[in-house]
Design a protein that fits this description.
β7 and β8 form a beta hairpin. The longest helix has 36 residues. The radius of gyration is 36 Å and the shape is rod-shaped. 51% of the residues lie in helices and 13% in strands. It starts with 16 loop residues before the first strand and ends with a strand. It contains 20 helices and 15 strands. It has a 7-stranded mixed β-sheet with strand order 11-10-9-12-13-15-14, with helices on both faces. It is an alpha/beta fold.
C-alpha cells in the first residue's frame, strides 16, 4: 500500500498511494481519494471524496514525524472505513432472525455494531500478537534457561523484535491460504502495477500495467517492516535511558511509543522512496521481499479497476470542480422502497403505487413481496434510482419503466406512442367477441400496436394495423416481434393507403381531444405523450367523421366497427354512423359511455 505525499520530481513520480480492498482498490492523492470496486455483476462501482491537502493543514501537523503520525492514524481509520464500504457494494444478504430481533428490540444497526467490534478486536489482536506475545515468549525462554537468567535490555528488544517479524511473516502466509485474501493480494498487485506504470511514463492501460513490477518502494508492507525494526531500536534506547521496566508497564510503554515509531517509519519510508541508490537498497530489501507474499499477479479486470481509481484521483486533483461520487450499494427491498417513496414525495408524487411499481417491476418481484429484507444488488438499485430520477422530471411512469402491461401482454412504450389505458382493454374485449381466426381485422391509429397484438394473439385473426407516425410504427413493429404476433403494418393516414382491402372488423382508438383542451391536460400528458395521438381537431371529432364516412367502403357485409371515444362524445358519434344498420353504446367500468359499436 504505497503511502502518499511523496514530492513530485522531474521523473513522473506521483503522490498517489493506495490500498487493496474487497474486490477493488482505493487510491489517495493530494486532494481526493477514490475507491473502485467490481461488484458481483461485473460492473465497476466508484466512490470518490475530497480530502484536505497536506499543504493546507496546520503547520504543526506538517512537521516531520508529526505528519507521519497523522498519516498513520488517517490510513488506519480511512482504510477501515473504505474496506467496509467496499463490502457494502455486495450487501450482506437477508439478515438472520436473531439480527432482525436485535435491530427491532434495541433500535440499532447490527452491522454497524459488528463493524465497530471487529475494529476493536482487530486492534486488541494486534496488541496481543505483536506486543504482549513476543514479550511473553522472551520471558518463557528466560525461564527455560533457568537460574534467574535475564537478557540484557538490547538483547530483550532484539529477541522480541525477531519474534514480531516471524509472527508477521507467519500471519501473512497463513491468511494467504484464504481465497478472499489471495484475491485481495492480487488487487494489491494491481495497485502497485498501476502506480509503477504511471511512474514509468507509460500510458495507463491494462497492457502497459501488466509489464510493470508488482512491488513498490512506498508499500505499506515495507512500512510495517520499518515499524518493527524502528520499534526495536527506539524501545531499546528508551529502556537503556530509564532503566528496566516491569513487564506490564513495558506493554503500556510500547503502546504509548507507537505514534513515535510510526512517525519515524513514515519519514524513513518517504526518504528512501526518493532515491534508487544502491547504498540504501539493503534497507529496502526486507520490505520488497515481503511484498512478494502480500502481492500477487493480478488479472486484466483487476488492473482495470485499479486504473479507474487512479485516473479518478488524478482528474480530481487536477480539477477541483469535479464533484464527489458515492457507491451504488446493495440495499434491502424495504429500505429501497422507502427511499424511492421519499424521493418521489420531494417532487409532489405521492401515489404510493408508483414507488411500488418502480421497485417491483425493476427487480422482478410482486408488490406484496416488497416489505422484505432481502437484498437488492447494486445493479438493480442503480436502475431503480435512475427510473425514479426520470419520474421526478414529470416523465410518465410507464415511459420511465419502458413498458407496460396491456391485457396480459408486455407492451413497450415511449414518447412516440400513447400509453395504453385500462379502458382500451374493454374495447379489445368487445372486439374479441366478434373476431375469430377466419376474420380480417383493421386497427386504425395503432400507436404502440397494443390492440392489434392482443387481437392477433387471442383470436388468430388476420390483422392489419396502420398509423401515420414512423415513430409509432417502429414501436408497434418491435412490440409485435417481441410478442410473436404476425401483423401487417402500413403507414397510412387512416384509410389512405388501404385501397382495395376489405375487413370484417375495423377497430380504432383515434385522437379525440379538442385542440383547445390540449393545454388543459396534465403536464406529464401534454409535455411527454405525442400530441399527434391526442389532438382530435377543433371539436374533437375530426377522425371520427373520416372513419364514419369511409369505413363502409372497407368493411365486408355485416362488418363491425368499434370505436373508443371520450366522455360525452358517444351520442354525437352514433349520429355520424347513418349508413350502419345498427349502432350501440357500451359503457366502461365506471359507467361512462366509452365504446360505439356499429354493424354494417
Amino acid at each position: 500500500m504505497p503511502e502518499n505525499n511523496v514530492n513530485q520530481t522531474k521523473t513522473p513520480k506521483t503522490s498517489i498511494g493506495g490500498q487493496a480492498v474487497l474486490e477493488g482498490v482505493m487510491m489517495r492523492g493530494q486532494s481526493a481519494m477514490a475507491t473502485a470496486v467490481r461488484d458481483a455483476d461485473g460492473i465497476i462501482r466508484l466512490e470518490s471524496k475530497r480530502i484536505t491537502p497536506q499543504r493546507e493543514r496546520n503547520l504543526f501537523f506538517r512537521l516531520p514525524i508529526v505528519r507521519g503520525v497523522i498519516s498513520f492514524v488517517s490510513s488506519l481509520t480511512t482504510g477501515t472505513k473504505v474496506l467496509m464500504r467496499s463490502a457494502d457494494v455486495y450487501g450482506e444478504g437477508e439478515p438472520s432472525r436473531f439480527e432482525k430481533w436485535i435491530s427491532k428490540k434495541f433500535k440499532i444497526d447490527v452491522m454497524s455494531v459488528v463493524s465497530t467490534l471487529s475494529l476493536l478486536l482487530g486492534l486488541a489482536l494486534a496488541v496481543f500478537l505483536f506486543i504482549w506475545f513476543p514479550q511473553f515468549m522472551r520471558e518463557t525462554i528466560e525461564k527455560w534457561i533457568g537460574g534467574g537468567y535475564s537478557f540484557g535490555l538490547w538483547a530483550k528488544n532484539f529477541i522480541e523484535g525477531g519474534l514480531k517479524l516471524l509472527i508477521f511473516i507467519g500471519y501473512i502466509l497463513l491468511v494467504s491460504l484464504l481465497k478472499d485474501i489471495r484475491r485481495t493480494f492480487m488487487y494489491h498487485g494491481a495497485e502497485h502495477k498501476t502506480i509503477s506504470c504511471f511512474e514509468s511514463g507509460m500510458d495507463l492501460t491494462v497492457e502497459n500495467a501488466k509489464k510493470c513490477s508488482r512491488v513498490h518502494d512506498r508499500c505499506g508492507t515495507t512500512f510495517m517492516v520499518f515499524v518493527m525494526v524502528i520499534s526495536i531500536l527506539t524501545f531499546a534506547l528508551l529502556e537503556s535511558l530509564i532503566g528496566g521496566v516491569d513487564k506490564f508497564y513495558r506493554v503500556l510503554l510500547k503502546i504509548a511509543m507507537l505514534p513515535l515509531v510510526a512517525g519515524l517509519s513514515y519519514e524513513l519510508l518517504k526518504l528512501l522512496a526518493k532515491t534508487k541508490t544502491v547504498f540504501v537498497f539493503p534497507l529496502k530489501v526486507p520490505g520488497l521481499l515481503l511484498q512478494r507474499i502480500t502481492t500477487r499477479e493480478p488479472t486484466d479486470d483487476m488492473l482495470e479497476v485499479a486504473i479507474t481509481a487512479f485516473k479518478t484521483v488524478m482528474e480530481m486533483d487536477a480539477d477541483k470542480s469535479i464533484p464527489e461520487k458515492e457507491f451504488v450499494v446493495a440495499e434491502k427491498r424495504c429500505d429501497l422502497l422507502k427511499k424511492v417513496r421519499k424521493e418521489l414525495n420531494k417532487y409532489g408524487i405521492e401515489e404510493l403505487a408508483e414507488a411500488d411499481w418502480i421497485v417491483s417491476l425493476t427487480i422482478g418481484c410482486k408488490r406484496n413481496q416488497l416489505d422484505s429484507e432481502k437484498t437488492v444488488s447494486p445493479k438493480y438499485v442503480e436502475k431503480v434510482m435512475q427510473i425514479t430520477k426520470e419520474r421526478c422530471t414529470g416523465r410518465p411512469l410507464w415511459y420511465c419503466i419502458g413498458d407496460t402491461d396491456f391485457y396480459g401482454y408486455k407492451i413497450n412504450v415511449d414518447e412516440n406512442v400513447l400509453i395504453p389505458r385500462p379502458e382500451t382493454e374493454l374495447l379489445v374485449e368487445q372486439a374479441l367477441k366478434v373476431v375469430d381466426q377466419n376474420k380480417c381485422v383493421l386497427d386504425l391509429c395503432t400507436g404502440s400496436g397494443a390492440i392489434a397484438i392482443v387481437i392477433k394473439k387471442e383470436s388468430g385473426a388476420n390483422v392489419t394495423a396502420t398509423d401515420i407516425s414512423d415513430g409509432a410504427l417502429s414501436v408497434a413493429t418491435k412490440n409485435a416481434s417481441e410478442n410473436q404476433a404476425e401483423i401487417e403494418f402500413i403507414k397510412s393516414d387512416l384509410f389512405e393507403n388501404l385501397l382495395g382491402k376489405k375487413f370484417d372488423v375495423i377497430i380504432s382508438n383515434p385522437p379525440y381531444i379538442k385542440s383547445e383542451d390540449i393545454e388543459k391536460l396534465q403536464t406529464e400528458v401534454k409535455e411527454f405523450e405525442p400530441i399527434l395521438a391526442l389532438d382530435g381537431g377543433e371539436d374533437g371529432y375530426t377522425f371520427y367523421r373520416i372513419i364514419a364516412e369511409k369505413a363502409s367502403e372497407y368493411l365486408n357485409e355485416n362488418g363491425v366497427l368499434l370505436l373508443e371515444c371520450g366522455i360525452g362524445q358517444a351520442q354525437d358519434i352514433c349520429a355520424m354512423l347513418k349508413n350502419f344498420k345498427s349502432v350501440e353504446i357500451i359503457k366502461d367500468y365506471e359507467n361512462i359511455d366509452r365504446i360505439v359499436k356499429a354493424v354494417l
